[in-house]
Amino acid sequence: MGTIEKLQEDLLLAEETVKQSEIVLFNDEVNTFDHVIETLIAVCEHTPEQAEQCSIIVHHNGKCTVKTGEYDELKPRCSKLLQAGLSAEII
């Protein structure tokens, strides 16, 4: 095995060991589209277009992954979504 192949293999192994989690936003009958969109922009750093698309997906499918990353990075974001009255969890 050459040096380049070994480095690529090591990189792939390192990427696999980082556990990726997701914040999933759930539909509710309480919050308006505008509130959900504004909250996703503020908390998850979505663009207005991303936030609008996520709100539509949540409305039609009942849930949508709104942010992916390491658990420790997602936990405060999920807490802010909950404080804003949205229904979300980290999976």
Query: Count of DSSP helices?
Result: 4
Structural class: alpha+beta
Alpha-carbon distance between the two ends: 37 Å
Oligomer: single chain
CATH architecture descriptor: 2-Layer Sandwich
Strand order of the largest sheet: 2-1-3
Class in CATH? Answer: Alpha Beta
* Total beta strands: 3
> What coarse outline follows from CA principal-axis ratios?
elongated
Helix/strand order = HEHHEHE
Q: Major sheet, described briefly?
A: 3 strands, antiparallel
Summed up, the domain count is 1
CATH superfamily grouping: Ribosomal protein L7/L12, C-terminal domain/Adaptor protein ClpS
CATH topology descriptor: Ribosomal Protein L30, Chain: A
Could you name the ranges where pLDDT drops below 50 across 5 or more consecutive residues?
none
Radius of gyration: 17 Å
Structure in words:
- This is ATP-dependent Clp protease adaptor ClpS.
- GO terms for molecular function: peptidase activity.
- One of its GO terms (biological process) is protein catabolic process.
- It is a single chain.
- By secondary structure, the chain is α+β, with helices and mostly antiparallel strands.
- The chain has a single domain, classed as 2-Layer Sandwich (Ribosomal Protein L30, Chain: A), CATH 3.30.1390.10.
- The chain is 59% helix and 19% strand.
- The chain is built from four helices and three strands.
- It is elongated and about 60 Å long.
- It starts with a helix and ends with a strand.
